[in-house]
């Protein structure tokens, strides 16, 4: 192993430590989110999907995204997201439909129940983020 005395090695070590700190903060925050959302029947990934769908909703609540668009925003694989969406659909929180522009694609939208749950849980999620991510 190389000595840690050179500037390059010290800079690399600092970068690695910064990265590990970010990973640790993410893990702690995700655990706190999961714990806080559990009482509402959700985990952090469930909420992220609801939040993405709610963010761009029109005043009447209508908005849908293609599955791959959601996957990019919530950083899940398409297969993991498909399983999550299937569960949310079974709970009546989202609905899936065919994509008009590409018949192979699937669009996902919030239901009224999903919008109501999102509104109820949003302050819980934001409070956890505020507590965990502000100094």
Automatic annotation (TrEMBL):
PROSITE patterns documented for this protein: HTH_MARR_1, HTH_MARR_2
Residue ranges of coiled coil: none
Alphabetic keyword roster: DNA-binding, Transcription, Transcription regulation
Residue stretches making up the HTH marR-type domain: 1-135
InterPro entries, alphabetized: ArsR-like_HTH (IPR011991), HTH_MarR-typ (IPR000835), MarR/SlyA-like (IPR039422), Tscrpt_reg_MarR-type_CS (IPR023187), WH-like_DNA-bd_sf (IPR036388), WH_DNA-bd_sf (IPR036390)
Entry-linked SUPFAM superfamilies: Winged helix' DNA-binding domain
Domain of life: Bacteria
The name this protein goes by in its record: Transcriptional regulator
Lineage, highest ranks first: Bacteria, Bacillati, Actinomycetota, Actinomycetes, Kitasatosporales
């Amino acid at each position: 192993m190389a000595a840690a005395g050179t500037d390059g090695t010290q800079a690399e070590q600092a970068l690695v430590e910064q990265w590990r700190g970010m990973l640790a903060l993410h893990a702690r925050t995700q655990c706190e989110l999961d714990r806080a959302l559990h009482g509402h029947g959700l985990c952090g990934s469930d909420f992220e999907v609801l939040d993405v769908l709610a963010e761009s909703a029109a005043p009447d609540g209508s908005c849908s995204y293609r599955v791959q668009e959601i996957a990019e925003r919530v950083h899940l694989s398409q297969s993991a997201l498909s399983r999550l969406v299937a569960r949310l659909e079974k709970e009546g929180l989202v609905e899936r439909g065919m994509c008009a522009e590409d018949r192979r694609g699937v669009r996902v939208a919030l239901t009224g129940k999903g919008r109501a749950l999102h509104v109820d849980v949003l302050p819980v999620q934001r409070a956890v983020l505020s507590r965990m991510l502000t100094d």
